[in-house]
Amino acid sequence: MSSKLVALIIGAGSNVGDSVAQTLLKQNYKVAVGSRNPKRDNLPAGLYPFTVDVTKPESIKSAFEKVTTEVGPPNIVIFNAATLEFSNAADPLSLSLSAFDKANAVASSFYSAAQEALGSFRSPVHKDSVKAFIVTGNLLAFLPAVASEGNRFSLGLQKRSEAYLSELLHNAYAKEGIRFHYAHLVSAEGAIPPYADFLKSGPAHAKAYARLINAQSPESWDYRFTKDGEKFAPK
To answer: In Å, how far are 26, 74, 169, 188, 199 from 29, measured between CA atoms?
Structure first.
C-alpha cells in the first residue's frame, strides 16, 4: 500500500533541501522537491521534482495543485527559499525598488504557501497524520534593525514577515493539530552562526526538522537549534 505521507519542499537546494528530503524519504514519505530548475534525472524512488519560483507568488498555487494531483496532498511543507540582494550598509535606500519588490514577493509566496498548505492539512486523507509547516529562518527576524545590517536588509524583511506569520499561524491553528514553525540554526551561544557552519548545515536542519515533525507534543513556533541538530538550550 502506497504511503499517504507527502512532504513538499519549496526551495530544494543541495544543502538544507537535499538533506531534509533524504531524511523524509527514509521515514516513508513521498517527497516533492521544488525549485526554479529542478533536477529530473537519476532521482531516487519517492522523489518528485516540480518547478516553483518564490519570486513569482502565482507559481505557488500551481505548484501545490501539481503536487496534490500527481503525488497527493502534502501533510508536511518546508519553505526553504529566500532571496538576498545586497545594498550599501550605510545607505539602505540604495537597494533598488525591483530588489525590494523581489523580497516582498518571497514574503507573499510564504503567505500563499501557508494558505495552500492549510487546505492540504485539512484533507480527510490526513485526518490522523502529523501536519506541519516549517520555514527555514535565521536570527535577522529578532535583531535590531541597525545600519550594520543594512547590506542584507532585504533578507531581514523576509524573515521578519515569516517569523511574525509563523507565530500567528501556530497559535491560530494549534487547536486543529496543525504546527507552524520558524526554525533556525544558531551558534552554541545563541547568536548568528558562522556562514561556514551554515554551508554544511544540511544534516543539522534535517535532524531538527525531523524532531519538529515527529514530536508527540508540538515544539514552540520559534525553534532554535545548533550545528549538531540539537535544540538550543540557553546557558
So the answer is: 7, 10, 24, 31, 25
Q: How many CA atoms lie within 13 A of 130 on its CB side?
A: 20
Taking the C-alpha atoms of residue 135 and residue 142, their distance in angstroms, rounded to an integer, is: 15
In contact, 173 and 180? CB cutoff 8 Å = yes
Any residues with CB less than 8 A from the CB of 173 and at least 6 apart, and which?
A: 118, 180
**Alpha carbon of residue 67 to chain centroid:** 17
pLDDT reading at 235 higher than 80: no
pTM of the entire predicted model: 0.94
User: Virtual CA dihedral for 104, 74, 126, 69, nearest 10 degrees?
Assistant: 120
What pLDDT, in 10s, does the model give residues 181-234? 999 999 999 999 998 999 999 999 999 999 999 999 999 999 999 999 999 998
- The conformation of residue 174, written as its DSSP 8-state character, comes to G
**Cα 206 to Cα 124: distance, rounded to the nearest angstrom:** 27
What is the C-alpha to C-alpha distance for residues 57 and 64, in angstroms, rounded to an integer?
A: 12
CA 133 centroid distance within chain: 7
Query: Quick one: CA dihedral 159, 160, 161, 163, positive or negative?
Result: positive
